[in-house]
Each structure stands twice: as structure tokens, then as C-alpha cells.
Amino acid sequence: MLSHFDPVTEYICDVTTGIATSSRVTGGLSLLVVSVLLFRITMSSQKTCISSVNVGAIFSVMCLLVYFAGFIRIEVKWNDHEQRLREIEDRLASVRQGLSDAPKWEKPKEGVLAGFKVRNKAGESKLKRYTRNINGANLNKSANIEEILEDVVSSSFKKICHGRVNVCPRGRPGSPGRRGRKGSQGLMGPPGKSGKQGIMGPPGIRGEKGVKGDIGLQGIPGIKGEPGESISTPKITLSSTELTVTKSDSASLLCSATGNPAPRVAWSRENGVLPHHRTRETSDGLLQIDDARLEDAGKYKCVAQNILGREEKVISLIVQSSPKISLVYGPVYVEKGKNITLPVCRVTGFPPPVIQWIKIHGSLVQERAAVNGGQLSIQTVEKNDSGSYKCLASNKLGQDSGVTHLIVVELPQFVVRPPTQYSVNTTANLTVHCKATGNPQPRVTWMKTDGELPVERSSTYSNGTLKLWNVKKGDSGVYICEASSNRVFKSYSTMKLTVEKAMVCVPVGVEDLKRIPDNRITASTYFSSDYHPFYGRLNGKRGSHGVWCSRNSDDRTGYLQVDMGSVHIICAVATQGATDSVTKVTSYKLKLSLDGSTYNFYMEDNTVKVLQGNKNRPRDVVKNSLRSFVKARYVRFYRVTGVGHTCMSVEIFVWK
Length: 656
What we know:
Layout (H helix, E strand, L loop, with lengths): L5 H18 L3 H22 L4 H48 L12 E7 L5 E7 L9 H20 L71 E7 L3 E5 L4 E10 L3 E6 L9 E3 L4 E4 L8 E9 L2 E18 L5 E4 L4 E2 L4 E5 L3 E6 L9 E4 L2 E4 L8 E9 L2 E12 L3 E4 L4 E4 L5 E3 L2 E3 L5 E6 L9 E3 L5 E3 L8 E9 L3 E11 L5 E3 L13 E3 L24 E6 L5 E18 L7 E10 L6 E2 L1 E2 L2 E2 L2 E2 L9 E22 L1 E11 L1
Parallel strand pairs: 4-10, 11-18, 20-27
Antiparallel strand pairs: 1-2, 3-5, 5-8, 6-9, 7-8, 9-10, 10-13, 12-16, 14-17, 15-16, 17-18, 19-22, 21-25, 23-26, 24-25, 26-27, 28-38, 29-31, 30-38, 31-37, 31-38, 32-33, 32-36, 32-37, 34-35
Helix pairs in contact: 1-2, 1-3, 2-3, 3-4
């Protein structure tokens, strides 16, 4: 049965032996600890194992014997360990003696010292420190001492540390372990000393008012005073009941009040308010109004009040000023024979000004003129009533005047009217006259009822004449001649225009030698006898390639000119390139002239028009219609872009 507990017994012996060796407590204490431990284990074993009480007792006795044997053995080993430590000290002394003969070491520095304990003759232990020389390996004697110490200690420890118990002396301290968990907070210490007083904070909220205390004892009566004044209701005294000032002066209104208690005095204005920013009141009842104006005139009320009652009085303020007139100059237009009322002559001032009307450079006809409330009315006006009229206003402080202008107009009368019906063919030019008279001379203008006049193909003149060029079918409609006098009185005369027939755009005949001879086709230059200017006829076959070519390659200043023999309205042009399938003009411009001396570029929308040339095959005919119909006899073709020399043949189309 004991064999069942052999592993447990061995473990307990190891534990007890370790406790005795590591702690080095006395035999009695060790025995007591072990006995308690064995008793607890034995009691627990009774609960878990099938063993008797006798077996537990035998087991306890055996463990005690093993403990005593181990304790004696460790004491012997410890004595041997002390002997070996003495040997280490002796060897260190010999090493130190050898180091005294070595070269002088450097002054020890902080952080590079190594120390050993040595015993002096008295047997006391002292710490001797040596410097570590990092300048060379040969002078580092501390390292040699450390090696000797390790050899001696290791050899000694090997003899001590053996057997199954494996109990060894404590070695060098290891490196610090990781920081453990933070422990629980300890007890709070006693309070520290009080610091300096801090800056005073803001005052707190004021507390509620406390309860009123009891009334104290009555004091000693004072000396009887003098008899006071008798009380009375307020009484007002004004400086005057009416105050007159001149405009821009200051007005001072004084209101004195008596009474007991002293009354409070206040000013107000009847049917209005006191002038803002120009009024000043004082405690003694003075009201001052600066920069008095006409609108400040009126009644001002002074009120005095105390606990016994109140009293009020009124003072009138009168503001005088010289007259000021506001009158619209006009002019005012009126038809002859009508009645007219001129603009109102607005007058301000006090005393009220006297108003009268006069005519400048003439006189009023009293039988037909009347003045009412500043307005002048004239009945059945005539031409001689035209002119300037002056309104005069005056009072004792001065006078002022204003002027307005009257124009009597006669309705325009037409002396030349346009025809009521007018028919014309397309592409034709049209001139229509319209004239009117009147006083003043009326202005004559033209308009179209269903749209505007044709843009760039129409013009109106100050004498009432209307001109249309190259009329189209869309120009048909009703045209109105308007005659107006001063843009107020107008008369009208109407004309219905009908565009019936369209003209045809046909070639002028550049291609035909009989219609345009060779001498009417010229050029600035030509390349050779195979490229004469008159070879530049559309679909021409003369010369090498049936075209005219300039002398220089890519010549943009050279031109080909056609004289049509008479002035025509040009509607289109056409161009063609050379027969070699390479040389061509891809774009060009036109210059036109009526007399052969003054030339202008053809323009559309106020911009020089660049027409398209032969961009595909050179012998293709490319025709360009002209949106703006222009008159010309001489036509010049100027190259803009192209391939090779400036070579082309042309045709011109006109309206017929």
C-alpha cells in the first residue's frame, strides 16, 4: 500500500527540503512548519484515498526522518561554500597586487565603475571600485577580474548544486520584470499645508431680502420747526399768447408755473408733434425751437401739474417767410382754337403772398385769360398766345417768380400725298414722295403696318421721300406717311404697295465672245501667252488649260477684271479651275466699281464677304448668289486661298 504514495512522498520531501534550505530557519521552526503541512495533507488524504490511520502515521514519521537528514547535509555543504568564498577573496587580493604594478588608470567616470567586496586585515568588508578603460582591450583589468570571479564561483557552485534536491545559493539579480498591475488605493494621508490665498472670484448672486425687523423704541422728540408754506394748485404764466418769428430763426416759448408742491411743466403741440432734433426743453418751462420752418407754425400747449391738480395754457407760434414758387417749365402744347390751363403756380410763404401772371414779350388778353388759385387759363388760344408766362408772388418779406412755356400748334397739312395704290416688279427700285406743312414745320416719317421697312434696302429722307431698292415679293404691304408737330399732333397718309413680278438672274455673257470681247477682260499680271486674261472665261478651252493665271505663285494681290459694258445689278458669280485637275482657287473676294476708278469690296452684314471657290475638282463650276444686290460695271476677282498659281475662269450673273 505504501508504493501507492511513493510519488507523493517524494514531492513532499523535495518541498520541505527546499523550504529549509532557502529560508535557513532554525530546526524547531522548520519542524513545526513541516508537521503542520503533513498533518493537513494526511487529513485530506483520509477523505480521498482508501487508507487507514496507521498508514498516515507511518508516512509522517518517514518524512520527518528525511527532513532531518537533508538539513544536516545542507549544513555541511554550506560550510564548504564559505570556504570557497574565502579562496575567491584570496585570489582577488593577488589580482589586486598585480594591478598595482600596471599603468595608472583613468579617472573613474560616472556610469563606468565596477566594484568588488574585499576584506581588510581586521576582517571587515570594503567595496573597492575600479575604472573601466574603453580605449583598449589590453588595459581593461576589470574584465579580467570578472572572468576569474566567474570561474571560481561556477566551479564552486557546480560542487554545491548537485543531487535530486538541486538547492543552489542565490545568484546575481536578474533584469527587472514587467510592471505588475496597479494595486488598490491606500489610505488617504493627512491633509497638507494650506496654500496661498487665490484671486477673489466674482461676487455671487445677491440673496433675497431679509425679513423686516421689529420697530424700535421711539426716539426723543425733536425741536419744533418753523411753519411751512401753504399748499396750492399750479398757476401758469406765459411770456405771451402769440409769438412771431422769421423763418430760420429760433423760437423761444416760456411757461412759468407756481404752486406747492412745485408743479412739473411739460410742452406739447396741438394737432401734431414737436419738431424732432430741433427742440429743447428746460426744467424752468422754456421750449426752444431752432431753425424755425413754416411747418412749425401752430399752437403749443403748456401743462403744469402737481398732486393738487393741473393747469394748461396755449401759445400760438407764427413763422413768417418770403414767397417761394414751384412751377413746371413745360413746354405745354395746345392745338389752335382749343382752351388751355397752364401748370399750377405753387407758392409758399407767410403772410400769404399775392399772386399774378404776366406774359414775357407780350401781354395777356384779359378777355380770354383768367387766374384762379395760382392757375392761369386761356380760352380759344391763337398762334400769338405762344410764348413764356411768368408767375409772380410777393409779400412784405419779399417776392419770387417762376416761368412756364406755351406752344400753340397747327395740325400738319399734307401738300404732297403718296399714291393710295402702287404696283412694281421685283428687283426694281422705288421712290415715293410725301410732304406736309404746319407751324411749327412737321416732321415726316415712314412706317410699315405689318413690319419694319426692308433693312439695307430702304431709306427715308427729311423731306419725306421714301426709297426702296431691289424690291421683293415680301415688301408688299401698307406703308404709312406720318406728319407730326412736336411729336404730339399727327396726321397720316397711307399707300398700298404690290410687288407683282420677279426678275431673272441671268449670265451677263463673259463666256460669250460676242457679248464680252477680249479687250474688256483684263488682269493685273498673267503667267505667259498660254494664260492670257481673256482665257479666263467660264468653260473656256483656249490656251493650255482654259484659264487665266497670275505671274507669281500664290499671288493674293493679283486680280482678274471684267468690264460688263454698262451698269448692272449683280445677283451671282461663278468660278472654275484649270483643266490640269490640280491648280484652283478655293476662296476669293470681289471688288466692284461703277466708273472704273473707285473700287469697293463686296460686303454682307458690314463685313467683306469671302466667297467659296473650287474645293473639289478644279473644272467644277461653283456659283455663289449675292445676298446684297449691288450695282456695278467693273468686277474684279481676288484670290484668298488656293492650290498652286492663281488660275481661274469666271462668269457674272445680273438681274433682267
